[in-house]
């Protein structure tokens, strides 16, 4: 949540910052702003709304300067407005700062500063944070970095900050705790970039340093120095980015979401590469090695995640229990962290996160680790916080996902989790060689079956047009398709703002059935699996009450098409793999409905892709 960028170098900073903010806009789009330092003036331009508004605002203004910082906001303290937009000035106008995170003790700090005569323009915790740094520098008559360091020992909460000073046009300071921050190092150290993730940097350099929690980076006179909050020098470790620029561009599609839906055959194949070779009955996740025994002998697996990742966790629960016979619990990270969870040695936590930065998931991991559990991370973003704090893990390798509604990350998460479950089942000898190999062959065919499913695009568009004005939707499924129903409903509400609920089909009788009338579209995920007959009965119950049914069925099904209003036929596959296929039409349905309703599918209102606040 909130994206920050910074630049110090030989080029003009403005363009680089604005482009960077466009790439980070998925993190929040309540306001956008930049601060530019040109040796004489420290200019701030900021505005409520999107980066495109900022681009208009700076037309004809003084945008010179080789040093600058920028911000795209997801509002926490203070509603979206021009004044609450970042960057903020210090009271003497000499410092400018951007911040991603929340300072929890900002109320008491603000009171202290008000007593000392500070005045505040905005309602944000960030302005308080900056004035606090300013006051410390004044009181201690010290260098800015020392004031930042002292301030960081006193603030409570999460932050990634970047700040610049009018007194020093060759200095950029950044720090983090709980919110991500990466520094790009240009050729010959002539320029440095900072950003919330690597996407604004990739165009300029592949050499990056990930800043750790409670570290402060000082970029000055062509050098990057890192200290921690206790003033201990740290050695920067330079990683080489593997991401390519094309991966973060729309590639001819109107929206990132559509591009990402269409990329799924490739992302699932990338995710399987080298991990599954059915011919040799090979199934292995290289990242899980030292803790394989823990996983095999786990008392239970506790899956922790949020949002779509939590839905992937629900599918994994069914798969692990079926093929590896290990009890599984699936927890919302935000609930887990605030209970007094019973967790400890012998438990294996699987933390699933596309971004690898979700604050609640990170906090839940910390609790699990403190209590002695082993934590395996399943993340998409390489080098992300969750990937780094996990004991071991496996990347989903789906490539950057930019549309706020998660699509290809979900199918890639399912791919990794299925692979993990089969790997454990193989090691524990829970499956016969024949059955294991059969499943691995089917898993290898999933990319091709997703490809086939994507061809239903036009058909789904026609159905979307019929239901685009609906005010409610119900999604029903059983077994492996129950989490798919939840995910289908989530996709629709996220991007089209239509109220939608996902339910286990049999539970419908305990409430949602009261909602059914001829106005109510009901999406059944009714593929041929062990609960097929039961789902058929549930469809009849809905039809008896005049509900309008859209059914996702297995190709060749002759029964359901006779009963329902619309069918979408997907290729047949083993039931444990079906969610990877059956979710695809639901992604397309929500996409088309949202587009037809004129919604901004890549940046739905109020949402952010990376939720770095709790
Ligand atoms: C946000 C995103 C969702 C995502 C969820 C969890 O709500 O909009 O798409 O599923 O966070 O994020 P994570 O990065 O941990 O998977």
Describe the protein in words:
With 614 residues, this protein is α/β, with parallel strands linked by helices. It has 3 domains: 3-102 and 159-247, Glutamine Phosphoribosylpyrophosphate, subunit 1, domain 1; 254-444, 3-Layer(aba) Sandwich (Rossmann fold); 454-601, Rossmann fold, CATH 3.40.50.10490. 36% of the residues lie in helices and 24% in strands. The chain is built from 19 helices and 27 strands. Strands 3-2-4-1-10-9-11-15 form an 8-stranded antiparallel β-sheet, with helices on one face. Helix 9 packs parallel to helix 13 (408-427). The chain is globular and about 80 Å long. The relative contact order is 0.09. The structure holds 6-O-phosphono-alpha-D-glucopyranose. 6-O-phosphono-alpha-D-glucopyranose binds next to helix 9.
Calculate the terminal CA-CA distance, rounded to whole Å: 10 Å
The best one-word shape is globular
Over all CA atoms, what is the radius of gyration? 25 Å
Number of helices: 19
DSSP strand (E) fraction? 15-25%
CATH fold call of the largest domain: Rossmann fold
Proportion of helical residues: 25-40%
Tally of extended strands? Answer: 27
Small molecules in complex: 6-O-phosphono-alpha-D-glucopyranose
* CATH homologous superfamily (4th level) name of the largest domain: Glucose-6-phosphate isomerase like protein, domain 1
The average pLDDT is 95
Low-confidence segments: none
Q: Which structural category do the helix and sheet elements fall into?
A: alpha/beta
Domain SIS: 291-430, 463-604
Keywords: Aminotransferase, Cytoplasm, Glutamine amidotransferase, Repeat, Transferase
Function: Catalyzes the first step in hexosamine metabolism, converting fructose-6P into glucosamine-6P using glutamine as a nitrogen source.
InterPro entries: GATase_2_dom, GFAT, GFAT_N, GlmS/AgaS_SIS, GlmS/FrlB_SIS, Ntn_hydrolases_N, SIS_dom, SIS_dom_sf
